[in-house]
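Sat 14:20. Reprocessing the chain from the morning session after the first attempt stalled halfway. Input below, unchanged.
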Amino acid sequence: MSLNAVRASQPRPEAPTPAPRRRLQPVTGTAPRRRPKLVYALVALGGAMAIGAAQIGLSLAITQDSFTLAGLSSQQHELTLHTQALQEELTGLSSPQALATSAAALGMVVAGSPSYLRLSDGAVLGVGAGAGWTSTVNPSGAGAVSNSLLNHSGLPAADEGEGAATEQPAQELPPAITDGLPSPTTR
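Finished this time. Tokens:
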């Protein structure tokens, strides 16, 4: 092979291509800015303020309802205690012992055996046929058993002279709890 053929088969080196130049230029002024839309900003600010005002309003309403509910719960508790006290008093006053004591104080007597009136001739039939019969049962006497549900200050005594019922102090309700549980006072 000839030298020319070798040179022809070898690639020719090409001239290097220069790298693209950056186009840097000094900044002479600021780029024009777009004017912000004032309406959008006002709508967003107004919406945020409306949401904040609604949250504050709801918070105040819920707080007020909480205080109202606490007051009503306290009032209901006091009324429940008062209802229970009245129920106990009614139970005591409707007991047979209280009714017998009240009847004896009014001058009523315990019935003996029954008597019947025959309408054809007006005759009284039965054992206790006379008006002079008196009962031997004394509900406030020595054999009476005291009733803890009775408030003896409201009932009249059956016999003032002998075996009169002793006065017991009235049962009082527990104090109303308004500020939580009671605690002892310390120094």
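Residues 107 and 169 are 26 Å apart (CA to CA).
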